[in-house]
Amino acid sequence: MELIPDAHLHRVGGVSAEWKSTGERECFSLSLADTQRGLPAGWYRLDGRLLQSEQKAATACLYPTYANGADGDAQIPLPDPSEAGLISALVLFKYDVSALRFCPAQGPSCFRVEDFSLCRVSRKAALWRMLRPTARTPGGFVSRVFGFVTDVMRGGVSQATDALYRDYRRRLLPQDLGDYANWVARYDTLTAERMEDLRVRAEQFGPDAPLISILLPVYQTPERWLRRCIDSVIAQAYPRWQLCIADDASPDKRVMGILNEYAGRDERIDVMRREVNGHISEASNSALAMARGDYVALLDHDDELRPHALLEMAEAISTGTNVGLVYSDEDKIDADGLRFDPYFKPDFDPDLLRSQNYVCHFTAIRTDLVRQVGGFRKGFEGSQDHDLILRCTERLQPAQIRHLPKVLYHWRAIPGSTALTRDAKDYASSAGARAVADHLDRQHPGARAEELSHGHYRVHWPLPATLPKVSLIIPTRDKVELLRMCVESIFNKTTYPNFEVLVVDNQSSEPDALAYLAELEAHERVKVLRYDAPFNYSAINNWAVAQCDGEVIGLVNNDIEVISSDWLREMVSQAIRPRIGAVGAMLYYPNDTIQHAGVVLGVHGVAAHLYCGMQRGYPGHGGRARVAQELSAVTGACLLVQREIYQQVGGLDESLQIAFNDIDFCLRLRRAGYRNIWTPFAELYHHESASRGGEDTDEKKQRFASEVELMLQRWGDCLSADPAYNVNLSLSSLTCELSSPPRQ
Known about the structure:
The chain is an alpha+beta fold. The protein has 4 domains: 1-121, Galactose-binding domain-like (Jelly Rolls), CATH 2.60.120; 122-174, no CATH class; 209-459, Spore Coat Polysaccharide Biosynthesis Protein SpsA, Chain A (Alpha-Beta Complex); 470-719, Alpha-Beta Complex (Spore Coat Polysaccharide Biosynthesis Protein SpsA, Chain A). Strands 22, 23, 24, 25, 26, 27, 28, 31, 32 and 33 form a 10-stranded mixed beta sheet that branches. Strands 11, 12, 13, 14, 15, 16, 17, 18 and 19 form a 9-stranded mixed beta sheet that branches. The protein has a 5-stranded antiparallel beta sheet with strand order 1-4-9-6-7, with no helix packed on it.
């Protein structure tokens, strides 16, 4: 295909393939002369070679012009070239293309373009190309195929294929393409029409509408950011607010001048100046003393509220029952007003709140509650909000805490702010560790807080003097090398002393396996049980539970290998806590990529493992892959639960022979009032169903499909509304990519 250069693209040294760009965004036009009507809509494979002599400023893109004038996906980003400069990608043109441009870089640069081609491919070939990368992950291919089939059953081939293509693009492309900026422009920009809708909604409130007092402690704030902050309050669609500003003795007299100016313009703004600088906690208390509202909301002096922030809060307060605290999602904003780094949060989770101050902004709390707990405490400056939220939530029931899955608050990311700098984060993190430790002393004596990196914490839960006995159940069939690895790693690496191992032999026949089982029978802490029936994971474990006497049951696959020596102590300490159901671990593939960091419901139809395939150490959305938290479900490959609770909910459902029995079990635990916990501090390798094999026969595929159908019928509503996830995050991605559009 011939490349026709724009005016600011020049050949270098007479070499036909090497070019220099002198403009900002110069492109090649692609000659479509060989076709009568351009390129027909459909699937294409793009191949080429792109070598750049300088670090590029942007990803290469295709820009199609559609014959019908439709915009479609007018910009199609391409993957980064390999080290050899090779680019290969699948491209979908939704409509006939009348013109096509290729832009290899942004800004002045030099590059070399060779062997550029665009070939049409069939839908079948396109589907294979999109599914093929998942085959590199054990179990991933089959899981994705059945996820695709489920999507077809739910929404048709076209919709399922579109979702698969979006997922393919997300996996293939770099992560710095401004996805969030594009998402904001499409789904989270307040147009004139939406602003009018906000005004109409605000007018629905009567004279009893809640008054919200915004607490704004101020100290030496640069005028630009202080005005932006206050202006964002004045611009609120909801009119029933009071802005309580306490200046903490700023040396710069211009600060008070600005504050008095605003107070003179709007009677809803109250201003006071402290005579002595008392830092953030005392300044916040000074603002609190002025509050007349039913609720107080927290605002930092250089941050901004969205225009509908207070309206959304007021609606949540008015439609709820005895609401004590409301919080929203948030993002960051830079000096130029660019929004980035959103945090799309789960519903209220006390374990996650102990692990990080994820509630933070934007938050409104009942004023009388804030005063009852003593307001903001000295000694916790930098994390005074975290300390306050911990103390307030201790006095609330979960039903009194509302989460709004909308970005209502922008953290200002400028030098010196906690949103940006390491020193500021360290200052806040140490105070947060003290807040969590104090909370544990009040609510959970014996538990200990450990400060991790920058605003993350680990809680070490206590164990009783007499350690509960754990029965680790390991179903197996042949594959002696896996079983030996599993059992030996447990005995060689586990420091928790009070456990037994029950190896459940399901019709092993290989001589080496039978010999090893006989060897294990002589081990004083191992029981070998014979289950002489067709493989049914649920039935095997239920039968084994009846044979053991441990207070805690551990479901362990025979392809698990221990990494961290305190894995069992960590999981037991979580499992014996009141109202805790299943406890799951961090599992890795042998190549040190994540296999399981918890389960999210609804992904690929039923459920899938978060962050599967990402490198060990991957932080996850909002840093959540680094901390313990409540999740709706965890995998049964390494799962602990109290024996009494296991039996109370009926164990595993034996009609789910292989797939989703762990998900179903966790959902039944949750329905019974228990909370499921995932911890990254119990680390193990998982060699993924190696002894059972894959879903590689018609019988297995039919069985898997029937299990999918059962889960959809039983839990359909739950699967699309995971409280530990967020409607703004995709159900076709394992890495918390953005949902387009949001699912609300």
